Amino acid sequence: MKRIVILLVAVVVLGACNHHQEKTQWDYMGAFDMYYSKAYESYSPNKYLPGGMTLQKAPEGTVARGKKPYPFKNKLADRKKAGEVLKNPMQPTKANLAKGKEMYERFCAICHGKDGKGMATADNNTLYKKKLYPIPPANLATETVKNYPDGEIFHVITMGSAIMGAHGSQIKPDDRWRIVLYIKNGFKVN
Ligand code: HEC
Predict the structure, then answer these.
(1) Per residue in 43-78, is it b (16+ CB within 10 Å) or e — as a string?
(2) How far apart are CA 139 and CA 129, in angstroms?
(3) Dihedral through CA 41, CA 47, CA 53, CA 58, nearest 10?
(4) Protein residue closest via CA to atom 30 of ligand 1
(5) What separation in Å is there between the alpha carbon of 137 and the centre of ligand 1?
């Protein structure tokens, strides 16, 4: 009798051994709840949570790790304040200017033109020239814009300006500062 019990235990225990590890073998407790956790995927529907969604909106005022909230609003007074307070952390190196040019041409040239001249641009690919955008975009290749403090242009990119939309959510802060360098360098890389 004792031998039979030992044999049975050996069969059961060794039965769980897995020489071919690509296949799961028997499991004895699989029927118990919580043996496998039934996790919801972030984007899966969820009948227990508000809105029927698993991923919930972050509570108001939540600050993402490593991010600082932008303290200025889309108002002229705040634009001027940003110009006084914010300092460009980027140096006008060739690499930064080249990245600024790349980002400017990706996000801004469609309205302001590759040369920045707005309505007077030689760039025929702007939305305004193609009659797809009705408002004449500002000329950025002027002494006025060159003389704006870096922080003021950074603010316009981040929050927008009057009719121009905000680009803060599309362009990382460092790249916004690089665009500022490129504009102030007269749309040149060196
Ligand atoms: C969809 C078109 C559009 C895009 C894209 C756009 N702008 Fe503008 N931008 C405008 C218009 C229109 C104005 C004039 C707004 C006004 O004064 O009401 C303007 C104004 C500005 C001004 C203020 C000029 C001044 O003298 O006050 C700056 C600086 C500027 N844009 C920079 C940029 C930069 C940098 C980008 C890219 C990150 C950009 N814009 C993308 C349309 C655009």
Answers:
(1) eeebeeeeeeeeeeeeeeeeeeeeeeebebebeeeb
(2) 14
(3) -100
(4) 156
(5) 6
| Structural contact between residues 110 and 165, judged by C-beta atoms closer than 8 angstroms | no
For residue 71, the CA-to-ligand 1 centroid distance in Å is 20
As a dihedral over the C-alpha atoms of residue 175, residue 179, residue 180, residue 185, rounded to 10 degrees, the angle is 130
Which residue from 111, 85, 116 is spatially nearest to 100, judged by alpha carbons?
A: 116
User: Where residue 154 falls among pLDDT bands split at 50, 70, 90?
Assistant: very high
Please tell me the distance from the alpha carbon of residue 180 to that of residue 109, in angstroms, as a whole number.
14
**Average model confidence (pLDDT) for the chain?**
90
How many angstroms separate the alpha carbon of residue 102 from the centre of ligand 1?
17
* pLDDT tens digits for range 49-83: 999 999 999 998 899 898 888 999 999 999 999 99
102 contact partners, CB below 8 Å, separation of at least 6: none
Quick one: 151 exposed, middle or buried, by C-beta within 10 A (0-12, 13-18, 19+)? buried
Q: Which two tokens stand for residue 106?
A: 């990706």
d(CA 99, CA 182): 9
